[in-house]
Amino acid sequence: HINRSATLPDGSKMILSAESRVDMDFNGARRELNVSSGEAYFKVKHDRERPFIVRVGEISVTAIGTAFDVRRETGKVTITVEDGVVMVSTEGWGASRNTWRAEAGFQVTYSTRDRTVSMASVNPAVEMAWRDGELAYVREPLGSVVEDLNRHSRTRIVIGSRSVAALLFTGTAFAAALDDWLAGIEQAYPIAVRRTDSGEVVLSARE
Q1: What is the pLDDT of residues 122-146, one digit of tens each?
Q2: Is 40 strand, coil or helix?
Q3: CA separation for the pair 177, 189 (Å, rounded)
């Protein structure tokens, strides 16, 4: 699969999904990274003197020694904590600045449109299965599933209509076995799968 792993200058580990972009600055008193797109997993080397801060738009995630995942999508940012504790802050709206504490096994979802935060208990192993190229879903809109697959696969999938994007999908998708998944959803849903000359896959409502 095509996830990219790297050891950062401080010894922390990072795994990026295919379409991700992360910039970093480790020169100052803080270890700072900026996720401008995609998904990234961090296993942070403990250093109480130098906080490890990941910025995702107007959200910042501060960790000391922990493991967590950050996913940036259209309209939302999702932080999943695998180990330890992180502090999730919103950049000041006016004079206010809100901070939430998330422990291992919890997921924080921030809506960039509504500027609201929700927290839920999750299974981090399932949420982070993308690191192995496996993506698992329970009643997830097909539009979101395709957005995930496009981050992890070299083949781009395009959805032709809102009705197809709204179909709810439960199951597992492997970015490395995309053809099998496409064949499966074509059988299970009223969807037609078409390949274009440019190599894209178009999903449209079956006539």
Answers
A1: 988 888 877 777 777 878 899 989 9
A2: strand
A3: 19
Note whether 14 and 5 are within 8 A (CB): yes
pLDDT digits (tens, 9 = 90+) for 35-70: 988 889 999 998 888 999 999 988 999 997 799 999
Residue type, 193: V
The burial class, CB within 10 Å (0-12 / 13-18 / 19+), for 31 is buried
pLDDT for the residue numbered 2? 46
- State whether residue 125 is helix, strand or coil: helix
Q: What is the mean pLDDT of residues 1-19?
A: 79
| Positive/negative CA dihedral, 164, 168, 174, 179 | negative
What are the CA-CA distances from residue 51 to residues 60, 95, 113 (Å)?
A: 12, 23, 28
Dihedrals phi, psi of 179, to nearest 5 degrees = -60, -40
* pLDDT digits 0-9 by tens, 188-207: 899 999 999 998 999 999 87
Collect all residues with Cβ–Cβ distance below 8 Å to 41 and sequence separation of at least 6. Answer: 14, 15, 67, 68, 69, 70, 128, 131
The rounded Cα 194 to chain-centroid distance in angstroms is 27
> Using alpha carbons only, what angle is made at residue 194 by residues 190 and 199, rounded to the nearest 5 degrees?
145
pLDDT above 90 as % of the chain: 43
Cα(8)–Cα(14) distance, rounded to whole angstroms?
7
Over residues 107-118, mean pLDDT: 90
